[in-house]
Amino acid sequence: MLGRLKMDIDAGINAYIEMSDKIFQKKHHRVKVTNGQIQGRFDTEELERAIKKIVRSQGFDEDTLLMDQPDTSCKV
Does the pTM of the predicted model rise above 0.70? Predict the structure, then answer.
């Protein structure tokens, strides 16, 4: 958030706190293996929605590739 989205520290912390409340609620209590696939304990779709919301709030399209230009001043 700091480097790619050029957010200041306070905005990054606030965004993380807001999205962590939604993301880190347990989806499952035990790890399940189905057809060789491990099912996560947290909701990955909620993580994706939260990140896209933050990206949009910074004025970017939600599907923008967040690649820095070689001459950028921020090395985060």
Answer: no
